[in-house]
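Is NDP placement plausible here? Inputs below.
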Amino acid sequence: MITNDVENFPGYPKGINGPQMMEEFKEQAVRFGTDIRFNQVIEIDFSQHPYVMKLDNGSEIASDSIIVATGASAKWLGLESEQRLNGSGVSACAVCDGFFYRGKEVVIVGGGDSACEEALYLSNLCPTVHMIVRKDHLRASQIMQDRVLKKENIKVYWNTETLEVLGENEVVGVKVMNNHTTEEIELKADGFFVAIGHTPNSSFLQPDIQTDEQGYIITKSDSTETNIPGVFACGDVQDKKFRQAVTAAGSGCMAALEAEKYVMSLEIKLEKQL
Ligand code: NDP
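Reply from A.M.:
I modeled the complex. Tokens:
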């Protein structure tokens, strides 16, 4: 929902805007009878079957099978100033907040596809985008790197780390340091955007569902099966390697097929008992 242009999903030769793509996915799912409910799952009771999901509106859903597709959330640098000024110039979503910085100078941190995409988005709104990259290269795909490096108003600072976001009540600048020379400089900026990756949204499932040390759900090899029978996981909550919309959609399809097979096996068992 918070990505701007998705250029690498098959079927969209001219690229597509993220929210619009989600709307189309939703329409397609509804056409096949999906009952969509907009709620937060607080916890799941796996001690009984069907499993019982508790929702934030107080209601419950009992289900034979569950597919976890909760994705991953933006990571922060962990600076006190970043937290204090969050919402007052600090943001993890350029596409959501960039418009407020139209005509102003901004700083963005990160060297992956998200950082490049957001830097490009900001470069169409802001006179200068200062891009802080902690290594001497970008991790982003070649096409995104080329676009960023060609863009005249994106200034990349290699081997550079953020020390502090400056400002009392709103961002006025950012103090950064070159990690090779230890030289410190202050950049004047009204906005500070963090685009350094994501954390899997799996904490509400722990300790029942097995995850790795970073919180990515562990699924069986060549499968979306978790350690709990009938519970499947797909997309970014279980994939730290590919993390693409298209691979998430593919693993979503695998999870749907496995969930269907699981539910059918329960029905066969029940018929045998009758
Ligand atoms: P990535 O994990 O790919 O990149 C994170 C970036 O942030 C890296 O450059 C990393 O540096 C840097 N970083 C991490 N922690 C810190 C820190 N504490 N301080 C400074 N820098 C830090 O995350 P993305 O969100 O960019 O991308 C995730 C996935 O989504 C990727 O597979 C990507 O291809 C995909 N994607 C595709 C898009 C598209 O096709 N349009 C758009 C957006 C994402 P380092 O390299 O040094 O580790």
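Short version: The chain has a mean pLDDT of 94.
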